[in-house]
Design brief:
Elements (H helix, E strand, L loop, with lengths): L2 H25 L5 E10 L3 E10 L2 H7 L4 H11 L1 E2 L4 E6 L2 E6 L5 E7 L9 E6 L4 E7 L13 H4 L8 H7 L1
Parallel strand pairs: 1-8
Antiparallel strand pairs: 1-2, 2-3, 2-6, 4-5, 4-7, 7-8
Length: about 170
């Protein structure tokens, strides 16, 4: 099988399984949506606010809150489903944008500005019908000549988080 056909087949299978999982959760009464904010940032002429709407089971997630951090991280990475087509209102510094999550539940909003942007970290609010979350919007000093961004989980520290059985053997 050619790689592009395999990729298409696997994407179709993933969509089918995800939708079946969503229908099963709803039929069991475990349907809910929560918003997970990601860190945003200030660019030269706009601010970027990111997040994700996730199909949630509040009861299970409350119990998971008492579990070890590795279990919570693994749940977030492998067992959550994005909530597609969810209306979201994003607010930042007295400005607001109404948007809808994409097919994977992601939120990506930009707020353009013409004058000088903020030089200190600010907060943005992501609001759905039943959930609200606040995320950071990082600002960098306007005279900084450069910045360094590093994903320490994969760049410096090999966590094997994408292979939970192998990670469990490292404990």
């Amino acid at each position: 099988m050619r790689p592009s056909l395999l990729r298409t087949a696997l994407a179709g299978l993933d969509s089918f399984v995800s939708e079946a999982h969503r229908r099963g959760r709803r039929s069991l009464g475990h349907a809910g949506v929560r918003v997970a904010p990601y860190r945003g940032w200030v660019a030269p002429h706009h601010v970027v606010v990111l997040g994700r709407a996730i199909e949630a089971d509040p009861g299970f997630e409350a119990r998971l809150g008492r579990a070890p951090r590795l279990a919570r991280v693994a749940y977030e990475r492998f067992a959550t489903l994005g909530a597609p087509s969810v209306p979201v209102r994003v607010e930042w510094q007295e400005r607001a944008v109404a948007t809808t999550t994409d097919t994977s539940g992601f939120i990506d909003v930009s707020f353009p500005f013409s004058e000088k942007g903020p030089t200190e970290t600010t907060r943005a609010e992501l609001i759905t019908e039943g959930a609200r979350a606040e995320g950071e919007v990082l600002a960098f000093h306007p005279q900084a000549p450069f910045g360094v961004i590093s994903d320490i989980d994969d760049t410096v520290l090999e966590t094997e988080l994408s292979r939970p059985w192998k990670r469990a053997l490292q404990l």
